[in-house]
Specification:
4-stranded antiparallel sheet, elongated, 4 helices, single chain
Length: 188
């Protein structure tokens, strides 16, 4: 009988504890209820939750992505970098205010993507040619006093006569992606 009584008291205690805990959890959610004692009826008033949203800022570990869109040839150059010291702790609004000629495409503490339109053509216009028996890449227009971009390790004499002739006459390529595809085709 004593075991039964102890078991019964334990069950009652657990039930009361569970009900109390459940009620406290339910009533302690974001709604705080106040009773207005100045009127004859009790009026329920909700307290507004506090806005704890943290404003995103650029940190030293934020990945900065700069997209340059060249309007004349519709080429986009993408550069990824760490943020320079003068951008650290800036918010999206700070960037928009200080960099009016850039469009902020996305902004988070993890990554910021900025885009800028430029009214000229890109420097991604190349001519594939020959230099000392190897395939070489030349800029179509001189950059920094030179027009050689790269001399590859692909020998010209490993190609057919027709391909050698085309390269010696120059093959125009626009865009880094097309250049990479072209060079990969000849390097394999």
């Amino acid at each position: 009988m004593r075991k039964f009584l102890l078991f019964f008291i334990t069950i009652i205690f657990v039930i009361i504890f569970s009900i109390t805990l459940g009620y406290n959890m339910y009533s302690s959610k974001n709604n705080v209820i106040e009773y207005n004692t100045n009127t004859t009826t009790n009026v329920l008033q909700e307290e507004k939750p506090v806005n704890n949203i943290k404003t995103a800022k650029i940190t030293p570990s934020t990945k900065m992505t700069y997209e340059y869109v060249y309007k004349q040839d519709n080429i986009t150059e993408v550069i990824e970098d760490v943020p320079p010291y003068f951008l650290i702790d800036l918010t999206r609004e700070d960037l928009e205010k200080n960099f009016k000629d850039w469009q902020i495409k996305s902004f988070s503490e993890r990554e910021v993507v900025m885009q800028k339109s430029i009214d000229t053509e890109s420097t991604q216009h190349y001519i594939i040619g020959e230099y000392d028996g190897f395939i070489a890449v030349f800029y179509e227009k001189e950059i920094n006093g030179t027009n050689i971009k790269e001399i590859t390790s692909i020998p010209l004499d490993g190609l057919t006569k027709d391909e050698q002739e085309k390269i010696k006459n120059g093959i125009k390529i626009t865009g880094k992606d097309e250049l990479i595809k072209f060079l990969e085709a000849y390097s394999s």
